[in-house]
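Homework help board

Subject: predicted structure for assignment chain

Our instructor gave us this sequence and asked us to write out the predicted structure in token form, then describe one feature. I got the tokens but I'm not sure how to describe them. Can anyone check?
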Amino acid sequence: MGIPIDGTINTFEAKLKSKGMLPNTETNKSLPFGKRMFRGVYIGRDVNITVNYTGKTKTVYSIEIGFADENQNIVNNFESDFIEGVKRKYKDCHMFGEDNGPDKTIYVYKTKGFDNFMWENVVGILKTEWMTIIGKPKAEYSDLKEKIIRSVKIYYIDKLNLERKDDENASDI
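My token output:
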């Protein structure tokens, strides 16, 4: 999408709207302060995007992109396309990942070289979480088939703005 994870929620929302994303007004009524959900097409697929922002300055610090489909390959391709997009965006950075089954955590470092894997060199964190939902009809609905939905939720966290959120929260104590 090419929108930096930065700025205020109102600025970020305007940029999302310019890309065709619409606020999910019904869901937003029940979300806690600091979260807004949008829906629209991203990487050619219908998705929900939740934007997280700080309380005081309303600075955006992370997004969550949710995508689900019955076809496992389509969901796999969505995850791969997103990760490749992040790699292109941060081509001058180094990425180091951890796999935990199908879930992944990838750290984006602002410097290259294996001696620079320190927290202060992290600029972002990309995380994916997988879920499979199996719907089985009751016996009295024998004409219905079992339905399997696979979903992936992708989180991208901007480390600097996350630290700003932590600082704002600490100042409230």
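Reply (TA_rk): Your tokens look well-formed. For the description, you could write something like this. The radius of gyration is 18 Å. That's the kind of observation they're looking for.
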